[in-house]
Design goal:
The chain is an alpha+beta fold and about 160 residues long. It has helices spanning about 40-55, 55-70, 75-85, 90-105, 110-120, 145-155, and strands at about 1-5, 15-20, 125-130, 135-145. The model has no long low-confidence stretch (mean pLDDT about 80).
Length: about 160
């Protein structure tokens, strides 16, 4: 079914409008009504905007916190559905949110640059080797600051 809005008076577009069936002229819909609003992308995008903009901050925070902890999308989705069975969020929305958060965290750095920045910031001990021709990371050894200090004190044990 195709519809359009048309001004009743062509001289006065500020006046009344009518809904007109177009195309084959059929006023009959070509499928049964959807029982689940999540199948409509327009509803989901509006729901995603609502999550960011309004009271459903708890759902957004669940997605961010679980994403940061490395929880898979399916598990995050189950948690969100458990909290709000009427949510319009689908797994793809969660995957998109994870990607968006990752891009925000990385900013303009590559994943490896971000890792080295984090290791430096948290004062981790690390050493790495790169492949001579490709400059790709070959080996990476890292240790928590407490582990490095324990090694200095007890290096004879290893």
């Amino acid at each position: 079914m195709r519809i359009s809005l048309r001004a009743i008076s062509k001289n006065s577009p500020a006046g009344e409008w009518a809904i007109v069936h177009t195309g084959n002229g059929s006023a009959v819909h070509n499928h049964k009504p959807s029982m689940d609003a999540r199948v409509h992308a327009a509803h989901r995008s509006r729901a995603a905007q609502d999550i960011i903009a309004t009271s459903e901050r708890s759902v957004h925070s669940i997605i961010e916190a679980q994403s940061a902890a490395g929880v898979p999308v399916a598990n995050i989705y189950a948690t969100v559905l458990n909290q709000d069975p009427n949510t319009l969020i689908v797994p793809k929305d969660i995957a998109n949110a994870k990607d968006s958060a990752r891009r925000r965290v990385l900013a303009s750095a590559t994943s490896i640059e971000a890792l080295f920045n984090q290791l430096n910031q948290d004062k981790f001990f690390y050493r790495y080797t790169t492949h001579l021709e490709t400059q790709r990371l070959k080996y990476l050894l890292w240790a928590h600051p407490a582990t490095a200090s324990l090694y200095k004190v007890n290096s004879d044990i290893l």
